[in-house]
Amino acid sequence: MFKKLWSNKPLIGLVIFSIIVAFLNPRFLSMANILNVLRQTSINSIIAIGMTFVILTGGIDLSVGSILAFCGAVMAYLLNSGLNPLLALIITLLLGTIFGFFNGFLVSVMKLQAFIVTLVTMTFLRGATLVFTDGKPITVRDGGMLFENIGDGYLFNIPIPIYIMVFLFIGGHYLLAHTKFGRYTYAIGGNEEATKLSGINVNVIKIWVYGTCGALAALAGVITTSRLFSAQPTAGTGYELDAIAAVVLGGTSLAGGVGKVTGTALGAIIIGVLGNALNLLDVSSYYQMMIKALVILIAVLIDKKSNK
To answer: Which GO MF terms are attached to this record (predicted)?
Structure first.
């Protein structure tokens, strides 16, 4: 019984924390605030889905925030150049995928450490974004209905980013739980050498895992640019830490091979609820950073205990 409850610790933690916050501030459970939390969470959730795949292989991707910023800037530039919004979206997603492929190639084929590779990509793309934008926001003059709705639209009074988030969580869960790609992803994280000896092309799987992560970061960049109707050169700063925190809080092991997208969904919501609760309780943003850091530390300690 206790073991079963322990396996659902992210859900238990979310319920307990929500009850405490609702008691301290009744506005927390209002429908408007719940939708606001989910909308705010959608960006981190989309990035965290890709991060889940990467961490399941035993890797890490620190470049997602910079990919978000650069791809968001490219999307704004393409739209202002008069390109069809759908074509601009496809190009932007492909660009994010290419960045992910590049990370995956260096990690899998060149045998470089994921931490170093993605740290380099993060720094390079952050500088490239500042150069591309000249350090100034790129305001979108006319993005068309597709671009406007993807980040700022509503369907049945529910923000469209929430639909995108839910769809991707369902797709990510299906991919991991019911496809060969998902089984191979788990296998690599569990024992890469054994997976390689069993005849599975580990390099190809890793490249696609990082490519998926890059594509989802690019999508998050498009949604962010759409919501603000401009591309900010500093967009996505620190988002990689929130994504990693969501994945770890959701029960995915940093050692790889253990975890679920459903857990990541709970982890992302916990991060979103935490931020929203601290805002409702008028906690200073300086203290919020400290509290988030402690939450991540606790999650890592729990992860280590679970592995033992």
So the answer is: transmembrane transporter activity
Alpha-carbon gap, residue 249 to 223, rounded angstroms: 24
Q: Is the pLDDT score of 173 beyond 60?
A: yes
- Polymer length in residues for the chain: 308
Res. 308 pLDDT band, cuts 50 70 90: low
- Residue 15 domain-assigned? no
Tell me, what DSSP letter sits at residue 229?
Answer: T
pLDDT band at 283 (very low <50, low <70, confident <90, very high): confident
Q: Please indicate, yes or no, if residue 184 is contained in any of the structural domains.
A: yes
Burial class of residue 142, CB neighbours in 10 A (0-12, 13-18, 19+): exposed
Burial (CB < 10 A; 0-12, 13-18, 19+), residue 55, is buried
Q: What is the pLDDT of residue 204?
A: 97
SS3 282: coil
How many domains does one find in the chain? 1
Residue 308 located in a structural domain: no
| β-bridge mates for residue 159, sequence order | 154
Are the C-beta atoms of residues 215 and 283 closer than 8 Å to each other? no
Q: Where are the beta strands (DSSP E) in the chain?
A: 138-139, 154-155, 158-159, 230-231
Of 90, 65, 63, 96, whose CA–CA distance to 78 is shortest?
Answer: 90
**pTM, full prediction:** 0.93
Using alpha carbons, list the distances in angstroms from residue 89 to 77, 147, 160, 249, 258. Answer: 11, 8, 16, 31, 33
User: Does 103 fall in a domain?
Assistant: yes
